[in-house]
Amino acid sequence: MITTGAQIRAARALLDWSRPELAAAAELSRNAVAYWENHPTIPAGHHRTPYAIGRIQRALLAAGVEPIVDPAPGVCFLARSPKRKARMHSEQVDCGMAAAGV
Length: 102
What we know:
Strand order of the largest sheet: 1-2-3
Number of domains: 1
CATH topology: 434 Repressor (Amino-terminal Domain)
CATH class: Mainly Alpha
CATH architecture: Orthogonal Bundle
CATH superfamily: lambda repressor-like DNA-binding domains
Radius of gyration: 13 Å
Order of helices and strands: HHHHEEHE
Largest sheet: 3 strands, antiparallel
Helix content: 40-55%
Structural class: mainly alpha
């Protein structure tokens, strides 16, 4: 589950996607993606997952990136992701922790 806006930014960085590319993949407006990227935390618990967050998460999962929350919020390539394999060969990195500067 996506818990921070920084996770969305980190996922875009792993995929080398622009905000408009994520918006298109999630079938949302760029403003919706920007809105949630700028949230330090995403509502959870008794609240229903916001509609846009569900769409963003599905788009990222389809592209091969999943959110992680333990030990800290971040994102990783799925093991079966073709992008992960290509990135592993070129950069020797398979996981990106969410960071405010991403």
